[in-house]
Structure formats: C-alpha cells, structure tokens
Amino acid sequence: MKLMVSLYGVALSIICSVAFAKVISESSRPVEKAVCVLYNPFNSITGLIHFQKTEEGILITGKIIGLEPGLHAFHIHEKGDIRDPKCSLVGAHFNPYSKKHGAPTDTTRHVGDLGNIYADDNGVALISMTNKLVGLEGPTCVIGRSLVVHRARDDMGRGREFVSKLTGNAGERITCGVIGYA
Q1: Distance between CA atoms of 119 and 114, rounded to whole angstroms?
Q2: DSSP 8-state code for residue 140
Q3: Which of 93, 109, 145, 153 is catalytic?
Q4: What is the reported pTM?
Q5: For 23-69, what is each residue's pLDDT tens digit?
Q6: Residues 109, 150, 153, 155: which is the catalytic one?
Q7: What are phi and psi for residue 52, nearest 5 degrees?
Q8: Catalytic annotation on 106?
Q9: Which residues form a coiled coil (predicted)?
Q10: Which domains does the chain carry?
Q11: Which residue, of 46, 48, 64, 126, is most buried by count of CB atoms within 10 Å of its CB?
C-alpha cells in the first residue's frame, strides 16, 4: 500500500511539473479551454471537469461520480500540488484579491468559491455553471491550480463558526485534481 501511495505521488509530481512547464511556455497564447481530472486512489470518486471561455464568463461543465448523495462544496484552491491523496497540499481557496469567502453570486468573494454541487441518489453530480470571476488568463487564471470537492456543503460564509468566513465550513477534502490546458 505504501509503495502504491509513493508511486502515485511520484506520478503526480511529474504530471504537475509538466503542466507548470506548459503553463510557462504557452502563457503568451490566448487560452480558450482548460480541463481537470479528479481522482483519489483511496475512494471511488472520479470526475472530468471542463472550463470554456464564453462571452458570459467561464463555463464550467462536467461529471463527478462516486460521491455521497447531497450537496458538496466545490472550490478552486491556490496550489496545484495534489501529491497527497487527502488534498492537504493544495493551499487555501484561490483568492488573489484578499476577499472574504462567499457564494458564487457574490461580487466580493474568493475567485475560487464555486458554491455547491449536488450528487443524486446514485452519487453522480452533473455540473454546468458560468462564473464571471474565474479566468483562464491574467490575475484570475486557474490553470495550474487545483479543483477540490469537499465532503460537506458550503454555507457560503453565512455560518456562525469562524471557519465559515474562511472556507464555508465545507469539511474534509475528498478529491482533487490540477486544472490544465485542454
């Protein structure tokens, strides 16, 4: 088991290094699409998420399977380091403008606050949302960062606990992936 986790970490380190090299080498070209593969070797949660530039903002679509039924927080985190299957190295929510945590409809919030996704009784979440703060270029660029699904729902910063204002009181990170060029 330890060998599998070690090999998983090495493989992800190589993938992350290649992704960052690609980000640096292609940063002068306009970016229209990005993609993220979600995977955790210790549970059955997998997913594929697409990011597409549109006139209305970034269209985020995809499918995640293996979730517990119900709402799950869905965030972009600041670092693309997914070597730990518990997603502990991805940092905080992507927040380049030092805003408070909030709902995706709030104009002043973390760029990475995408709200909640809903998993049906079969554990499947179908995602389709447009986000005006997320970018594929410039200071709000999410390429090279991570996408994270949490065990609990996001309270949108409206809870009474202190952690609500930081993370939406979303609980454990259950799967993650690096956002890269499509």
Answers
A1: 15
A2: G
A3: 93
A4: 0.83
A5: 444 456 789 999 999 998 889 899 999 999 999 999 999 999 999 99
A6: 150
A7: -135, 125
A8: no
A9: none
A10: 2-181 (2.60.40.200)
A11: 64
